[in-house]
Amino acid sequence: MCLILIAWQAHPDYPLVVAANRDEFFARPSAAAAFWSDAPQVLAGRDLEAGGSWLGIGRERRFAALTNYREGRQMAINARSRGALVADFLTGDAHPSTYLEQVSARAADYNGFNLFVADGQHLAYYANRGDSPPRFLSPGIYGLSNHLLDTPWPKLAAAKAKFASALADLPAQAAFFDLLADQEIVADSHLPETGVPLAWERILSAVFVRSEHYGTRASTLLTRHRTGVTTLRERSFDAGALLSGEVCETFT
Which one of 113, 126, 130, 252 is least enclosed by Cβ atoms within 10 Å? Predict the structure, then answer.
């Protein structure tokens, strides 16, 4: 997952709103969002290579989402699966603070990541890069790409502003999917330097990433109403930014 926007207790009717894009190689097998057969309380997409996930919600209001931390150094090939961090929280019952303390204790076992976890009452965040411990987040609007929380990369700043505006249109969803579909490439003078070649910095600067072998695979909108009604709508894409499927699940 390479872009996550969260409104946490920032809307009078929707205490949780999440809009997110997952970017991945098209060759990596994955399943669209669905209730898991081996954990029926979990609604999430699934990485079919390592078994984890990038974003999901549980019937008991547990929520988790993850992005990788982009850095130029080579990834450790024997590292633990980062997707398991999402799956383990959704299928478990640990308090968010307890869970993130456990994760931070073994942070060196993973390549770089950012992780949100919530239980309906608390939203917490932790990254195994930087020097901040796990922490609770106060009500507000947050944005995350492939650096640290609210790092003002151009695509994140633009998407976060559009996300804040789209909240006013709820329950309408079109504005959220419009912002997630933005393919505008940022000018070179505004690109971050994350250790990847300039050509890749350009490609990755768009909210919706498009290239031959790698790009946005899924755009997801998750809303939880104050009545407890939760809706997850996900659009899946193939190479060429072609829509390949759409899922919509609602539960209380």
Answer: 252
Q: Which amino acid is at 223?
A: T
Domain membership of residue 169 (yes or no) is no
Say how many C-beta atoms besides its own lie within 10 A of residue 248's C-beta: 12
Digit-coded pLDDT (tens) for 170-195: 999 999 999 999 999 999 999 988 88
Q: Contact, 244 vs 238, CB < 8 A?
A: yes
Q: Cα 72–53–214 angle (5° rounding)?
A: 45
Peptide bond into 171 cis (omega under 30): yes
Q: Specify the CATH number for the domain of residue 12.
A: 3.60.60.10
| Residue 199 within a domain | no
Secondary structure of residue 228 in the 3-state scheme: coil
Distance between CA atoms of residues 180 and 159, nearest Å? 8
In a domain, 161, yes or no: no
Contact call for residues 164 and 116 (beta carbons, < 8 A)? no
Structural domain of 48: 3-151+214-251
Tokens encoding 166: 């789209």
pTM score, whole prediction: 0.95
